[in-house]
Amino acid sequence: LAPMIMRLLTNERLAVMMTVITAGTAGILLQEGYAAILQMETTLYVLFGGLVSIYLLGSDGRRSNILKTSGMVALTNIGFIAFYLLMTQSSYSWKELLFYFSAAVVSGLLSGAMTIGILPFLESVFSILSDMKLVELSNPNHPLLKKILMETPGTYHHSVMVANLADAACESVGANGLLARVGSYYHDIGKTVRPNYFIENQHSGVNP
What we know:
Elements: H1 2-9, H2 12-29, H3 40-57, H4 63-88, H5 94-126, H6 131-137, H7 143-151, H8 153-173, H9 177-186
Helix pairs in contact: 1-2, 1-3, 1-5, 2-3, 3-4, 4-5, 7-8, 8-9
């Protein structure tokens, strides 16, 4: 949960740092004995799951991508637990195995579900424009985009063309293409005040 939220709201470096801190803290808090500083298996469990989520999630904040990433985290958790149980060479009952693997799946999937639920709240509180919010703003059913389409169809077509050019340019230089695309969609919103004053919306008659 923490690495995915940090990756979507900030950047990859801070997300990795958060993963290391979270893993270390979990290892310290769940340490049962006094011989070691932290419980290494718990630390590695949290660390691997967090790093996999950061790598797979990237900067794509779409809900489908978050859910897919959480599914892969669940598989990573299962793989780590299976490896750990094989290495310990201890006998476990079916109830114990069912609990471990169920917890691995639930924790992975729940992380994605909670990320989707918490992210809009954090965006509003800290005024952060995430990729998920940008995708929402790029939806053609957004009231403002529908207003442009209905009142200034020529401007809408022009904005879409500008968005395609801006997105391609950003991708070529490593900039945020999604941000440029959404900005292009809305950059001529002021033309809705006097649509017929602009050439792309003039079909016939006098040019004011």
